[in-house]
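A.,

Following up on our hallway conversation. Structure tokens first:
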């Protein structure tokens, strides 16, 4: 790579000509301005280009040699690059003036300088050790790479610099790689740097990447980067390449457009530039919005549309006039072809002032379009998601409009009643009942919007001061809704026969369905018997009997299909009415401000509709969960109802323990049971906080006990309700815990703390990389083979569970960080009790590092990190409470000396030794006396002061000082007693944490490195004064003379030294210490 540049003797001997080295030197020293030096150098370059290039290379050598000069070296290097760039820029305009030289263009100056810098930086796979030299060389190389973008040597060197340990060097290398010609290796390096720990490197990598099919996924992954500069660079890169909008999918494009509402102004500005470029490229805002996915994530789609409506008000005004303004009668019922125009019009209308809104909006036309959308929903076949979405958007606008005309008010009231009668029901899955997202989706359904519009035309709003007049209006509105419910059920009420006198149509249908279920079960048993007999007859070669059985099976299958079809028809008929009635009642409870005790119509729905519906036989899962949800809404609204149904909600929540680990047919019901339990859990927590004055203390505490004793597989159901209960009513738990331990709530604090520090475990499929064919001899290991088209893998459900677990861990971390800051004196003790629960119940074993073999490689995995958990709690507790943490941690070291180092408990204590509480040295000494591993606790011993020697034995009659730690056997017995008590409370403790683990025969690599460093310092001895390296006395001269001189072995030392397991090493060291 060393350039072949030699000085021209003719120029060197010429005294009358200018010297380029002197010009460079004077300009760098500041004696000559750069504006004067560049034309002089260009003049000399036209006379003798080789001399100028030689001077540039010599000066570059000096700059790299003096790279530790700081900013002076940086300015000098930048000046040399500017000179080379200036010469290359003007070399086409100038002609060589040297005598005897053929006419033509001047040679390049940047390429020789670049090759010389490559030579100075060591070339490929070599480089200087000094980081200042590497940084200066990388800076100049990255700047020159922009002038010579096709240089292969520069690319290889920049690829090496992109892996440097210094972040500033990696950042400069990334900028240089971005300026090179597009290549696969450079693109792969930039893709790798988008996840760099350094913010500047990530930002430069995102800005330098070219958007393509291979890089779009990685680039879009930075949209959620924690640093605003990375997100802004992403949008700036997108604005520079607007044609790449075709590469983004609908969901990704929606997420990018939503960047207009980012929390940082710089990101919003950059996102605005990208959106403007896309709109100009595509031809309008609506074209861009039509490309977005607005139905999958409605909240994100509304955010994107609202941001576009605020940024493009003129386009929004046109769309509002087109779809919500005045028009001809024949066009009033015309509907758009996509969700974009109506959503954009709604958001643009909401952003307008009230005067502009009244001027543009035509409420009569709006009502006609909403009626047309309702008819479209009724006539839709198959997937009616688009018609439902369109209807809800128009109903949102109706709820926003100002209705002042009495005739228009009646039309709007008829529209609301029609929506309640014929509107589409909420499609919220059963599993989302009781969750925040599910509640938000139900609150924006067509039925809820119908209730909101009906309340609006009745003169009611959501939040208003409750007076006698408003209560009368609330009661009147509730009566009107209950009458609508009765009108919905009236067509199904027929003339009753003698046997069904006094029964409603739902009861009759339910009895018929129950009878059909019994017949279907009998037919299914008959089918199984016939199949068994047919198999037996075929085995005995009785073919005539087998043929008869085959005919019977065919007839039985026909009867079974008929029964199932009839049952499905009756189920559809009953559930449609029941779900509509339940949706209306639940929506009325969500939006009403009425006092239930003063609203007989609304209160009557509980006793006349909900409670009878619960007792119906053969209820479907959707109806059952909806009824429970409505009853829980009543309980939250009224304290007497909550007290009457308290045992029901506790039973629903505790019912999860009976279905844990179920398989087969029982696992089908698990989803319904979890949904009911989630609804009951939220209702229990809300009722305990709202009606705490009406409920007694035992009932309030029973809610927390039921929430805490949840099975392991369903723990996500109760985390949010339990956190809310502890934040509001944690003082009740602490007061009762001081009187008598409330083990189940303390247990819940422990497992939630473990969930907060849960570590994501990747599957082997994620770790495994696609295997490449073996390379042939002579081929380069850098050149990648041609990539074959790879099928897009299906979404792994475990990845979604991991994402939910990570999000829940973040919320739990915020909860425990807030806990010590609560008013009162119970917050910090509750945090301490959480860690003590982890240590005393055996949950700490989930933090033990265990080996897992995957593809011949051993990976050490654990469920959570004990050092991170201990450090988090230790920092947030006052000094006087930290002693409890040290006592329970050292008790683990005494009870399980083999597993405690694998859980890194001694390492966590050593890390917190600088803030150790008073009494920690004595506690450590007692742990060592009881059998704790002195080798594992060696770093802790060296960081704690030596405790004073123990006093003499007490006199006769004086009781000895109590021990703070238990003996190993007593510690194990105490843990077993705690686990037995938790098991008696209904907690399957063995599923949460095993009672014992097998000690691995090997230890992790970083643990072996620690043991090797300690082995050089001699065998450990018992006692804090002997287990630390800092307290050991140097050997005497006699001992040094008695020790034989070790033989020098270079190659056989590794073979002679056997690798023993950790237990054998400790046993050998203890035996040598005793000898």
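Then the amino acids I'd put at each of the 1075 positions:
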């Amino acid at each position: 790579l060393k350039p072949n540049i030699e000085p021209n003797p003719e120029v060197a001997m010429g005294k009358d000509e200018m010297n380029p080295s002197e010009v460079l030197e004077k300009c760098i020293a500041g004696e000559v301005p750069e504006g004067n030096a560049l034309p002089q150098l260009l003049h000399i370059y036209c006379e003798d280009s080789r001399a100028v290039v030689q001077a540039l290379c010599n000066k570059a050598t000096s700059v790299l040699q003096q790279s530790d000069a700081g900013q002076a070296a940086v300015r000098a290097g930048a000046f040399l690059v500017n000179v080379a760039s200036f010469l290359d820029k003007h070399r086409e305009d100038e002609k060589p003036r040297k005598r005897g030289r053929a006419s033509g263009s001047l040679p390049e100056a940047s390429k020789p300088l670049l090759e010389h810098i490559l030579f100075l930086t060591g070339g490929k796979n070599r480089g200087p050790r000094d980081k200042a030299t590497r940084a200066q060389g990388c800076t100049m190389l990255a700047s020159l790479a922009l002038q010579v973008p096709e240089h292969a040597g520069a690319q290889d060197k920049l690829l090496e610099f992109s892996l440097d340990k210094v972040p500033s060097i990696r950042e400069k290398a990334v900028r240089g790689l971005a300026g090179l010609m597009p290549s696969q290796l450079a693109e792969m390096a930039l893709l790798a740097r988008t996840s760099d720990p350094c913010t500047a490197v990530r930002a430069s990598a995102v800005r330098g990447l070219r958007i393509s099919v291979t890089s779009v996924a990685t680039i879009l992954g930075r949209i959620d980067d924690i640093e605003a500069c990375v997100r802004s660079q992403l949008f700036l890169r997108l604005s520079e390449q607007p044609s790449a909008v075709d590469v983004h999918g609908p969901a990704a494009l929606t997420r990018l457009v939503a960047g207009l509402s980012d929390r940082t102004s710089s990101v919003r500005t950059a996102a605005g530039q990208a959106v403007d470029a896309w709109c100009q490229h595509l031809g309008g805002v609506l074209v861009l919005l039509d490309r977005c996915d607005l139905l999958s994530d409605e909240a994100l789609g509304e955010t994107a549309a609202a941001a576009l409506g605020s940024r493009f008000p003129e386009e929004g005004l046109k769309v509002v006039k087109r779809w919500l303004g005045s028009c001809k009668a024949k066009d009033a019922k015309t509907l758009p072809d996509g969700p974009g125009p109506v959503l954009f019009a709604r958001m643009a209308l909401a952003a307008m002032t009230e005067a502009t809104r009244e001027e543009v909006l035509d409420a009569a036309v709006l009502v006609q379009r909403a009626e047309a959308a309702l008819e479209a929903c009724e006539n839709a076949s198959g997937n009616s998601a688009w018609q439902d979405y369109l209807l809800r958007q128009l109903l949102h606008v109706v709820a926003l409009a100002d209705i002042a005309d009495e005739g228009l008010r009646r039309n709007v009231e008829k529209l609301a009643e029609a929506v309640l009668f014929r509107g589409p029901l909420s499609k919220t899955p059963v599993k989302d009942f009781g969750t925040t997202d599910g509640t938000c989706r139900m609150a924006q359904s067509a039925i809820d919007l119908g209730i909101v519009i009906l309340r609006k035309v009745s003169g009611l709003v959501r939040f208003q001061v409750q007076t006698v007049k408003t209560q009368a209006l609330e009661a009147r509105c509730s009566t009107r809704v209950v009458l609508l419910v009765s009108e919905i059920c009236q067509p199904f009420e027929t003339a009753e026969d003698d046997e069904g006198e006094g029964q409603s149509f739902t009861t009759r249908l339910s009895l018929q369905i129950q009878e059909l279920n019994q017949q279907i079960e009998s037919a299914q048993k008959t089918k199984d018997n016939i199949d068994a007999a047919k198999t037996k007859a075929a085995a005995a070669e009785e073919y005539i009997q087998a043929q008869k059985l085959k005919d019977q099976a065919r007839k039985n299958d026909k009867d079974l299909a008929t029964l199932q079809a009839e049952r499905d028809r009756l189920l559809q008929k009953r559930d449609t009415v029941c779900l509509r009635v339940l949706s209306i009642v639940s929506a009325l409870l969500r939006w009403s401000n009425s006092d239930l005790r003063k609203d007989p119509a609304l209160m009557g729905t509980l006793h006349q509709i909900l409670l009878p519906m619960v007792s119906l036989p053969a209820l479907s899962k959707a109806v059952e969960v909806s009824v429970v949800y409505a009853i829980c809404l009543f309980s939250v609204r009224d304290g007497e109802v909550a007290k009457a149904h308290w045992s029901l909600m506790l039973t629903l929540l505790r019912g999860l323990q009976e279905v844990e680990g179920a398989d087969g047919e029982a696992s089908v019901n698990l989803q319904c049971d979890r949904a009911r339990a989630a609804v009951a859990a939220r209702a229990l927590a809300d009722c305990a906080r709202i009606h705490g004055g009406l409920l007694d203390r035992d009932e309030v505490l029973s809610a927390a006990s039921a929430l805490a004793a949840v099975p392991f597989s369903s723990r996500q159901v109760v985390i949010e309700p339990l956190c809310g209960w502890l934040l509001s009513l944690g003082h009740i738990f602490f007061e009762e815990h001081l009187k008598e331990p409330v083990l189940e709530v303390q247990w819940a604090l422990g497992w939630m703390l473990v969930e907060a520090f849960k570590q994501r475990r990747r599957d082997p499929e994620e770790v495994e990389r696609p295997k490449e064919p073996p390379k042939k001899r002579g081929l380069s290991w850098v050149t990648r083979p041609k990539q074959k088209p790879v099928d897009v893998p299906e979404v792994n459900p475990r990845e979604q569970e991991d994402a939910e677990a990570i999000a829940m861990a973040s919320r739990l971390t915020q909860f425990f960080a807030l806990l010590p800051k609560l008013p009162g004196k119970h917050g910090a003790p509750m945090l301490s009790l959480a860690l003590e629960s982890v240590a005393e119940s055996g949950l700490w074993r989930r933090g033990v590092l265990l080996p897992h073999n995957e593809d011949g490689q051993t990976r050490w995995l654990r469920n959570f990190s004990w050092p991170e958990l201990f450090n988090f709690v230790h920092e947030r507790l006052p000094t006087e409470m930290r002693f409890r943490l040290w006592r329970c941690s050292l008790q683990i070291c005494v009870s399980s000396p083999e597993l405690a180092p694998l859980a890194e408990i001694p390492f966590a204590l050593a890390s917190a030794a600088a803030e150790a509480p008073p009494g920690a040295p004595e506690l450590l000494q007692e742990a060592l006396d009881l059998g704790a591993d002195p080798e594992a606790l060696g770093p802790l011993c060296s960081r704690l002061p030596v405790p004073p020697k123990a006093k003499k034995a007490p006199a006769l009659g004086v009781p000895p000082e109590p021990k703070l730690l238990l003996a190993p056997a007593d510690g194990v017995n105490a843990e077993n007693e705690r686990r037995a008590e938790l098991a008696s409370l209904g907690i399957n403790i063995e599923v949460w944490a095993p009672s014992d683990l097998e000690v691995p025969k090997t230890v992790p690599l970083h643990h072996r490195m620690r043991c090797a460093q300690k082995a050089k310092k001699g065998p450990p001895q018992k006692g804090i004064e002997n287990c630390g390296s800092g307290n050991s006395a140097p050997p005497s001269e006699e001992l040094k003379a008695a020790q034989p001189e070790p033989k020098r072995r270079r190659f056989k030392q590794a073979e002679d030294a056997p690798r023993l397991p950790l237990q054998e090493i400790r046993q050998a060291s203890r035996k040598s210490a005793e000898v």
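The beta strands are 850-854, 857-861. Curious whether your intuition agrees with the design.

B.
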